[in-house]
């Protein structure tokens, strides 16, 4: 730090900070301690097919390593005021926790260092870095703020990376990955199991349902939720907390993806019926508290997708719901349940829009897989249970049934012609994405849940204790 004369653009005496530029956002209190980065979500990824274990490292005071490019000044903190220079302020050379420029400065610092170490940053996923040595192997590194997860096909490269990082930064080696961003990871010889049991238990205790009676499905198949249902108004704040918590839980629980997304449509002025539906999802979590997704090693590294829709499933506006899921040899690792933006005039149109959304995701996944050496040399298969939608996608000629569909959805035809994806028909009974479009009866729900790779930890091979 350097001391400058205090002027009108310095920070206030409360310890907040400002750039010399006229920032419009509110100042944050200066804090020398790092904030906890846990409980931040993201969809799980399978990692490499080699079966190598995943390791984790924790950087201490990561933001303090970021070099600031802007001119930022702070008041002299209490207890560290320089005598005779009380009217001056500090100019920061490096970032502090609580500074709005700190995350960007830290990312720039770690990005520059990894690039100097020979890592290639994925252009499709900013937190993914890959280093390849011919004849030795590949090292894959993923960064989230001050948490680093890495794996690879070479033990030598992983040891070298750990030594380099511990030499450059102050950090702790946490060994094998067991917990990351609120998710638990159980590694066995033949699989990796990702779960959120601890978080789920916290939810049940938080909302007073720790000893509730459990149910076998998150929603009743025959019930249809709508905005105006005639029931009394519910506590909006409590309802939002429940739904927000459920949405985070979908990071490892695709079986509740549709339920959480459906409830999220009623965040404003929820009714007692909506609140009861949310509580039912929590009762389902109670019944499946130790469930997660298993990714099995040794499977073929082939990207496969499923897409489906529920035509006019919304009671208010008759819009459809799209759903898709992708797997990479075993359990699903990418999924979504999304309400379509426009009304579909037929089931074929609803399925066609759903297929276009799945195609967009498939293209991005192919980019990411290629970045760490799992290039898909053949077209990615996307299964659809509607033959009319498949015909519309494969026929680039103007069609009477598709002339009103927004042009952005027609890029699926180019993807098929360029052999990026291949749409194939599957029977409705085998359509995995059906679980993301509507509430299902128990037998159907259990079958599709197993197909997604969601299972209890007690069914894993070997001795597993969570």
From TrEMBL:
Compositionally biased tracts (Polar residues): 34-43
Top-rank lineage group of the source organism: Eukaryota
One protein family per Pfam: RVT_2
Ranges for region Disordered: 1-50
Domain Reverse transcriptase Ty1/copia-type: 58-220
CDD domains: RNase_HI_RT_Ty1
Low complexity compositional bias, start-end: 1-17
Protein name in the entry: Reverse transcriptase Ty1/copia-type domain-containing protein
Species of the source: Prunus dulcis (Almond)
């Amino acid at each position: 730090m350097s001391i400058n004369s205090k002027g009108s653009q310095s920070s206030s005496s409360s310890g907040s900070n400002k750039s010399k530029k006229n920032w419009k956002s509110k100042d944050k209190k200066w804090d020398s301690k790092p904030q906890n980065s846990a409980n931040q979500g993201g969809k799980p990824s399978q990692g490499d097919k080699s079966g190598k274990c995943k390791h984790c490292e924790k950087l201490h005071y990561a933001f303090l390593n970021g070099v600031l490019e802007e001119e930022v000044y702070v008041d002299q903190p209490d207890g560290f005021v320089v005598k005779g220079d009380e009217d001056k302020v500090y100019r920061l050379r490096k970032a502090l926790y609580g500074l709005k420029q700190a995350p960007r400065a830290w990312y720039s610092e770690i990005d520059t260092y990894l690039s100097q170490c020979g890592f290639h940053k994925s252009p499709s996923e900013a937190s993914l870095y890959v280093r390849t040595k011919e004849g030795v192997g590949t090292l894959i590194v993923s960064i989230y703020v001050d948490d680093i997860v890495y794996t690879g096909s070479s033990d030598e490269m992983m040891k070298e990376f750990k030594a380099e990082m511990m030499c450059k930064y102050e950090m702790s080696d946490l060994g094998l990955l067991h917990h990351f961003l609120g998710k638990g990871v159980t590694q066995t010889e033949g699989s990796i199991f990702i779960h959120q049991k601890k978080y789920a238990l916290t939810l049940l205790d938080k909302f007073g349902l720790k000893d509730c009676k459990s149910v076998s499905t998150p929603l009743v198949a025959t019930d249809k939720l709508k905005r105006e249902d005639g029931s009394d108004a519910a506590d909006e704040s409590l309802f939002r907390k429940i739904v927000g918590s459920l949405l985070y839980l979908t990071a490892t629980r695709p079986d509740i993806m549709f339920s959480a997304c459906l409830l999220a449509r009623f965040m404003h002025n929820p009714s007692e019926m909506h609140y009861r539906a949310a509580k039912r999802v929590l009762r389902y979590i109670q019944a499946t508290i130790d469930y997660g997704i298993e990714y099995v090693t040794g499977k073929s590294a082939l990207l496969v997708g499923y897409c489906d829709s529920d035509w006019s499933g919304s009671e208010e506006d008759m819009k459809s719901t799209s759903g898709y899921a992708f797997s990479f040899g075993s359990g699903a690792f990418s999924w979504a349940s999304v309400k379509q933006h426009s009304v579909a005039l037929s089931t074929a149109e609803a399925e066609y829009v759903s297929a276009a959304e799945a195609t967009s995701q498939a293209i991005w996944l192919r980019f990411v897989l290629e970045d760490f050496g799992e290039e898909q040399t053949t077209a990615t298969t996307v299964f659809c249970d509607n033959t009319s939608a498949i015909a519309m996608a494969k026929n680039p000629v103007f069609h009477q049934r598709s002339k009103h569909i927004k042009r952005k959805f027609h890029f699926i035809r180019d993807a098929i012609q360029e052999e990026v994806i291949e749409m194939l028909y599957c029977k409705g009974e085998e359509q995995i994405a059906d679980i993301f479009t509507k509430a299902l009866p128990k037998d159907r729900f259990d079958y599709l849940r197993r197909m997604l790779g969601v299972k209890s930890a007690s069914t894993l091979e070997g001795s597993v204790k969570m």
